[in-house]
Design a protein that fits this description.
4 helices; rod-shaped; about 80% helix; about 130 residues; about 0% strand; mainly alpha
């Protein structure tokens, strides 16, 4: 009997200790969350911080001068610059070809034969399409 009394007394003491610890932890946890909420309310939910946050959202997402529109336009500009560089290369190649044709009549004649299938009166031209 003495053993059971000792065992149940220890179980009751453990339960009381557990309940007490649980209450203390719950109280400490609530105190911690209360301190966090007070800090958030004081520094994050401040009218100046909220105004700054709204202002940042408006600048980022709203209007023609928003950050998103600026990024899109910068991307378009880079695409147009690449396209312009391609056209400039084509112009340079064409100018070089014009200079070669103006250098001699043989080059001009060769260009006319190749590009426009021109031929002299005493020549026959055969066009062969290669697959």
């Amino acid at each position: 009997m003495h053993f059971f009394h000792f065992f149940f007394a220890n179980v009751c003491k453990c339960q009381i200790l557990f309940v007490t610890l649980h209450r203390e932890l719950k109280t400490k946890s609530m105190e911690r969350w209360t301190r966090i909420w007070n800090w958030v309310r004081r520094y994050v939910l401040n009218k100046y911080v909220l105004t700054l946050l709204v202002f940042a959202i408006v600048l980022t997402f709203c209007g023609e001068q928003s950050l998103l529109h600026r990024i899109e336009r910068a991307h378009e500009i880079s695409e147009k610059e690449e396209e312009l560089a391609g056209y400039q290369r084509a112009i340079d190649e064409t100018n070089a070809q014009i200079e070669r044709m103006n250098a001699s009549t043989e080059n001009l004649e060769q260009f006319a034969r190749e590009a426009y299938f021109m031929h002299a009166d005493n020549e026959d031209v055969y066009i062969v399409n290669e697959p």
